[in-house]
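Task card 7
Instruction: Convert sequence to structure tokens.
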Amino acid sequence: MATHVASKAGYIDAYKSMREGSLYFITAFLLVSIGATAVLFSLFFIRPPGLGAAWAFPVVVAILMIIGGVIGLIGLWGKFVPGVRRLAELNPEFGTSSTLIYIGLFWGIVLMMIGALLLLVLVGVFIMIVAAVLMIVGYAGLIMLMFKLHDVEKSGLYLAAGILFIISIFVSIASFIAWILLYVALGESIRKAEAMLPTTPSPVVLA
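Output:
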């Protein structure tokens, strides 16, 4: 009984950490997406008039992407990865997902930030391409994690998030929706796990 309670408590801690990390990622995704969309528009549609505007535009884009990257790293390194590693300790079947998420997402975000800093020179573009490849590796780990969580928790939200993470490789907005679904699903898993914990009986007060 004590082992079962400890296991449930461990899952609750892991899910709470992952849920906080998901919220960071939702915020980071918004900022990075704005920056990435601005880059695409600048390459294909927008031609800012004047040298000042031409320099100011990529600087603003780089700042947005760097801020988004910092928020993502905080959520990943401080919350999400520790949560997934905790899951791997409780269930070794989560181990591969934990490794891929750390290698792909963490280093992908780091390189994305470096690429954003060097956006004004050609090498920045190549660094961001490498970052994109690593992010795909990280998302492969996320997809595996979603399907495993679906097996464990029997929640369709995890399955939907996993499918959306697959689609997000080709359509980036699907990732944003997937992180939101993951945030909601983890909240449900936390509530379900907490409901299964034994309640501590109230002490009897003798008159």
